[in-house]
Here is the input.
Amino acid sequence: MEKRIHAKKRFGQNFLTDEAILEEIAESAQLTEEDVVLEIGPGTGALTTRLAARAKRVVAVEIDGSLREQLGQTLSACSTGMNPNALQTADGTMHIGNVAVLFTDILKTDLAALRAEYNEGKAFKVVANLPYYISTPVIMKLLQDAVPPLSCTVMVQKELAERMCAAPGGKEYGTLSVAVQYYATPESVCEVPPHAFRPQPKVTSAVVRLVPLETPPVRVKNPDFFFRVVEASFAHRRKTLVNSLGSDPSLALSKERISAALQDGLHLPADIRAERLTILQFAALSDLLR
Ligand code: SAM
Here is the structure.
């Protein structure tokens, strides 16, 4: 009999129960039998079984060890292949069928070691209904990895999805848009209402598919400086770009210099705001200010 799970708020546990949406996520990940999938936060396994049915293998990383029994039951019931019973290795990893579950924190996981152990060092496809409290750091960890995933199909809060996909000009466009689009092409897949989960979250969610780029869309002299300029530019959204950048003590740039770079170098008005600049223009600006 299925055990009742007490969802833990501190781990962002909102389990997806809507069958149609679970199918849609698994389908939108565009998996083949060659793919090794990294799932972050398998929870009780509702999505995991659908990924395992489509891919060669699933490696799942789950922080909450108390889900081991329930997850094991879900996976055993769906495993048609070899070893439907859970096997546990000395390090606590659970193996069932073509699924391996590691009970650890994804933010502390060595992705290179995971690739070496489960995919001959090659890139994973990532699929996850991400816990909201760590969605951004997880996505940035994946995108900035030395061997980024082939794709990341992730469910996040709708507002975060909109910020990742935003184009210049709107209020959603900001540091996260530039950071994500520097590494990947985002496409939105679908919206997911609160009633698709147990327990229901207070917010609407959305699924986004990120396809990492082979090379960044812009070449900058110094990527660290580029990101510092982008972050400082959006730090005070009501201020002009000159005032935002000019008031960042760590950059130590004079307003005259920033104005000159904008007007003479980029042919932009001196009173422009950060949200109007494309990634290309941020790249040119950071190179001029460096
Ligand atoms: N995949 C399941 C589903 O769709 O129903 C569960 C999704 S739930 C939103 C997020 C899952 O991520 C939970 O199972 C939670 O325990 C797990 N989780 C939270 N923080 C984590 C972390 N730092 N590393 C790995 N898993 C984490």
